Structure formats: structure tokens, C-alpha cells
Amino acid sequence: MISLVEFILVGLVLTNLVLLGTSRIGLCIRMVAFQGVGLALLPLLGHGEFELTSLAISGATALLKGWIFPTLLFRSLESAHVRAEVEPYVGYSNSLLFGVAALGVSVWLGGRMPVPGPGVPQLLTPVAFFTILVGLFGIVTRRKAVSQVVSYLVLENGIFAFGAVALRKAQLLVEMGILLDVFVAVFVMGIAIFRINREFDHIDADRLASLKE
Amino acid sequence: MPARWTILAPAAAGAAAFVIPDDRTRRGLLAATGVAHLALTLLAFRVPARSWFDGALLLDDAGRLFLLITSVLFLAAAFYTVGYLRRETTGRRQDMVEGRLFSNSPEARFTGCLLLFLSALSFVCMAQNLGLLWVGVEATTLASAPLIYFHRHHRSLEATWKYLLLCSVGIALALFGTYMLALAGGGEVSLGLPALMAAGPTLNPVLLKAAFVFLLVGYGTKMGLAPMHTWLPDVYSESPSVVALMSTCLLNVSFLAILRVRQVLAAAGQAEFGNDLLVFLGLTSMAWAAVFLLRQTDYKRLLAYSSVEHMGILAFGAGIGGMGMFGSLMHLFAHGVAKGAMFLLAGNILAAYKTKDVSGVRGLVRALPYSGPLWVAGLLALTGMPPFGAFVSELSILRAALAGERYILAGIFLLLLAVAFIGITTAGMRMAQGQPGSNLTEAGKPVAAIHESWSACLPPLGLILAAVLLGLFYPAPLAEVMATASRVTGGF
């Protein structure tokens, strides 16, 4: 019988593969929101007993990743009149190939790491690694500034999942601080995208290349 | 008690700055906060620290030191900013590099972010929980990003974007490292520094080492250690001088973050591993910077690469340990004040000559009777000439390396210092000497007689004087705190 946690993790892997294989930025934003809502459940399911702290963290995560981030990103997408990623550095089929390789590496690496305590699925560490790798890959290979922010969020999701394993003692202050920072980061990046669009009439981050030695 | 107000006061002032409509009042608030922050910091040296949030925030001796240098630099920056904002012309005007039109961000936003930035820096100095430490360091990134985009042209926007993305990704890796540290404790240890250090020997050594690597790369990105420093020259060259000065504080507190993590490593008996990595990254940064210093044509970038070099020196000293750690903390102050003065002077030069090219500036000593000589003094302070503070600190680090019988490392260290010296002084002295206007063909216009306002000259003068003082003597209370801090952060 597959547990709910494992179900969420498998969902994470599948959405990552969608992210690697699609050119539609709107779809990417939805996928990342979907991941976020799934991840928001992890603090509640992780350690058996039900606590108020976990509930607060979970609620804030769901609100932020499932609603506020997509809204912000869709808004900057609309203001820039961009719908799809055009000619990324690595094509979509090659991106998927990378995804498969990264999944293999993550499973191998994750299998060598100790898992703290019972009740934590073996799958968690490999999936977190895989998500982090996909995020980094996206930041490096996608041209549009919005895509880079989406990839940053994927990276953050992976780290969040890892934190759900590693930090079994949730501390409200720390978790809330981290969420607040990520929120402000996306907010500031959104403003920057808006400015880039106004200044250059495009949001291709690779064309921001006048500063060099 | 005063310690927590170093966070709260600038935060409140920053929030107020966003809504105060009157420029004069807002500038007054900025200067007043600078003075108040330094007063609070000095007070915090005298009273015993009290913990906040169950020990998650506590100003220990290492934190005191980093808070002090932050506070001193902010005070200089605040006074300079007041004059700078008054001199800045408003409205749309021509960009001096490409001749395109641009305008400034609202002044209220600039001042507000500057104050929030200070608040975040103080927060990092006090954080005794690695999770909160991360929150603070990321907050410094976010508060400073709008500052870089004060002059709204495409180059500063590009620098802001690079800064945001590179630093956020770097910092994300640090968060990963932080979680990995928690995993090394089997998931049952909290992220509090005391708890982690108490659990030291029981931490899983493999995970601990992996965590340190991630944390070093993450915070090293913010500290400007090569090869993760690529955002730094762009940000320094495109942002106003005051922001470049405050970025020095940013590099400093990132160094503190690395030292905090090393405390855990040392408690677990793995200090050797961390130290070797620090020495390696330190020398890499120095070498990388030396190469770019030699062929640098832009004096703001020159100062930026000099920062990379000095961060390398800090990391090297920390990696050598013992007396080297003490030298490193001394260097923190010596470099901070000297670099702060140089950035402000670079701002004065830019305002007078309207070019960032080394070749476009001649006869500085004659054209700017105050800034010119200070620039020469600053060059000597920055390259570690006696009697300036950097001479003493670099000598201590070198002596520590020799005492530890690490002769090859000491040799490389000396060689790289010499190369950096050549790079900085060649460019800097060429700017200082000669006749103003003797380069008419290059810059295209003669330099008009410049009126230098006191607000542009006094802050760098104060910082240079501090650099001289640091070379001659250390006040006893400061030396005491420094000794404890180097024991705590050095792990012995």
C-alpha cells in the first residue's frame, strides 16, 4: 500500500519531468504551484503526531506556494507578453534525457544517505536531490527571466522537501523566517522582471550581457 | 538589551523612511540612526549579552566585533549619503557612459532599504541559530538589491538581476547545507548553535563534511570568494558608492556565517577539513583577484577585485587558525575602514571626472585637493603599507603561517600580496599623478575646478584616520573582545 507521502513524492518526480519537457511557461508555473501544495502537506504527514506548529507551517506554505507565487508570476508573465520559452540552451528532449540521468544519480546518491528515524520513506532524499538538480538545470539552461525564477522555485521546493526529512523538530520561528525570505525573494525578482521588460522590451536574461571584463 | 535595538531601531527607521514625504527629515533620520546604532553597539560592548527567543539571538564576542565594524561603516555611509542625495540631480538626465537618459529610484526607497539592510546585518551578527542565520543573510540580499538599482539604467538593472539570481541560488545551497547539518544530527538536533556544538562528536562525519561544503559554497558566494564572486565586480561598479561601501559589510557578515559553521565543525573534531578548504578558497580568491587587478581599466571594478582579494586574505587567515584567526579579525577592521574610504573617494572622483576609466583620470592630487591625497593614503592602507592597520594584520597572518611551518603557503600568500600591490598601485597612482586635463584627448573635456563639500570628504577622512590608528594601537577593550572572539570562532 502506497502511503500519502510517497504519493506526493512520486507526484514531485512527475511534475519535474513535465517541467523539463515543456515550453509553456504558464504550464510550468502551474506545475510548480502543484508541487508547492503537495509539499505543504509534508510537515503534517511527516512525524505522526499532529501539532499546531506543523499546521501553521503547512498552511503558510500552501498559501504562499500554491496561490501567491503563481499569482505573482502570472502577473509578470502577462506584463511581459511572454507565453513560451523560446529556444532554450538545451532542447526539450535533451532536457528530458538529463532528467532521466539526474534521477538515476539522485537515487544512487540518496540511497547512500542515512534516513533519520522510522516513518520517513526511503524515497524522500532521492526525490529531494532530483528536484534540486532539475531546478539548477533550469536556471542554467532557460533564457527567459520568468523561467529562471520558476526554476529557482523548483530548487527551493527540493530543499524544502529535504528539510522536511532532516528537520523533524520543526521550529516555527526558523520556518516562518525562511518562508518570508523566499516570498520577498520572488516578489523582488518579480519587480526586477517588470523593470527588465520596461527597459529592454524583452525578458531574455541571456541578453543581459553588457557587463564583463 | 541594547543589542536587540541594533536590529529594531534601524528596522523601525527604515519603515518610517518609506512614508516620510520630506527629504530633509528623512536624511536627518538616516544620520540619526547611524549615530544611534553606533552608540547602541558601543553600549553592547559594556553590558553582558542577554538572549532573545530562547538563545536563538544572542550577541556574543564574535558578533560584537562584526557589529562594530558594520556600525562604523554605516555611520560613515549615512553621513556621506546625506550629502550625496543633496548633490544628486533629480529628474531624467544623461548616463555618463552611454549617453542614454535615465532617472533615479525614489529617494525614500533608497533610504528605507539602506536602513533595512543595516537591520538585517545586525540580525546576522546576533543569530545563534543556523536557520535564523540563513534567514538573516538572505534578508541582506533582498534589502540591498533595490539599492543597486538606484540609478535606473540598464547596466545597473543587469547587475541587480545577476546579484539577485546568483546570490539567491548560492544562498539556497547554504540552506540545503543547513538542513544537511540537521540530518547529520539524526534529525533530532535543533539548528541552534549551542545544541549543534554539544552534539558535535555524535554528528555523522560524512554528512557534516558535505554540509560544510554546501554552506561554504553558499555563504562563500555572498562573501565573494572566487570562483563564486562573479556578481561582485558588476554590482560594485554599477551601484552608488555608498552601496558599494555597505556591500563590504555584507561580505563581512557572510564571513561570520562561515565562521559560525566552522564552530560546529571544530566541536565535532573536524576542524582540519574546514581549515584546509578555507585556505584553498582563500588563496584561490587572492590569485584570481590578482590576475584581474593587473589588467583592470575601471577603477570601481579595481576596488571590487581588491575586495575579492581581501576576502581571500580573511579566509586564508581563518584557515591557518590560531594567531592567523586573530590576524583575520584584525584584518576585518583594517580592510573595512580602508575599503570604505576608497569607495567613497571613488564616488567623489566619479562625480568630478564623469568617467570610471583609470585612463580618464589624471592629476587627482591637484584637481581634488582633499580627495586626491586621501586617495593616495587609501591606496597605501589597502595594500598593507605601514603604518596602516592592514600591515599589522597581514603580518600576523603571515607569522601564523610561518609559525605553523606552512612555508609554501606563506610564500604563495606573500607572492599574491605583491602582485595585488602592483596591480592596485599602478592604476591608482597613475590616477593620482600628472596634470589634471593632460588627458584631454581621452576624456574629451577638461576637469573644472571642483568644489568639494565637507560631507564628501569628512567620512573618508575619518575612515582613513581609523585605518592609521588600527596600525598603531588597538584599544584594550577591543583587543580583549578580539582575543575571545578568535578563540571562539577559531575553535581553540
Describe the structure concisely.
The complex is a heterodimer of chains A (213) and B (492). Chain A has 7 helices and no strands. By secondary structure, chain A is mainly alpha-helical.
Distance between the termini of chain B: 29 Å
| Range of strand content of chain A | under 5%
Q: List the total number of helices of chain B.
A: 20
Write down the Rg of chain A.
Answer: 17 Å
State the domain count of chain A: 1
Shape field of chain A: globular
Quote the distance from N terminus to C terminus of chain A: 58 Å
What labels would you give this structure?
heterodimer; A: 213 residues; mainly alpha; globular; B: 492 residues; three-stranded antiparallel sheet; 20 helices; 3 strands; 75% helix
Kindly describe this structure:
The complex is a heterodimer of chains A (213) and B (492). Chain A has 213 residues and is mostly helical. Chain A has helices at residues 4-21, 25-45, 52-80, 92-111, 124-141, 145-166, 172-200. In chain A, helix 1 (4-21) runs antiparallel to helix 2 and helix 1 (4-21) runs parallel beside helix 5 (124-141). The mean pLDDT of chain A is 87. Chain B has 492 residues and is mostly helical. Chain B is built from 20 helices and three strands. Chain B has helices at residues 2-19, 23-46, 61-87, 107-126, 130-148, 154-184, 193-198, 205-223, 231-238, 241-267, 271-294, 299-320, 323-353, 364-367, 371-382, 389-403, 407-432, 440-443, 454-472, 476-490; strands at 93-94, 101-104, 151-152. Residues 440-444 of chain B have low confidence and may be disordered. Chains A and B meet through helix 5, helix 6 and helix 7 of A and helix 5, helix 6 and helix 9 of B.
What's the layout of helices and strands?
The complex is a heterodimer of chains A (213) and B (492).
Chain A: H1 4-21, H2 25-45, H3 52-80, H4 92-111, H5 124-141, H6 145-166, H7 172-200
Chain B: H1 2-19, H2 23-46, H3 61-87, E1 93-94, E2 101-104, H4 107-126, H5 130-148, E3 151-152, H6 154-184, H7 193-198, H8 205-223, H9 231-238, H10 241-267, H11 271-294, H12 299-320, H13 323-353, H14 364-367, H15 371-382, H16 389-403, H17 407-432, H18 440-443, H19 454-472, H20 476-490
Antiparallel strand pairs in B: 1-2, 2-3
Helix pairs in contact in B: 1-2, 1-4, 2-3, 2-4, 3-4, 3-10, 3-13, 3-19, 3-20, 4-5, 4-10, 5-6, 5-10, 6-8, 6-9, 8-10, 8-11, 9-12, 10-11, 10-12, 10-13, 11-12, 11-17, 12-13, 12-16, 12-17, 13-15, 13-16, 13-19, 13-20, 15-17, 15-19, 16-17, 16-19
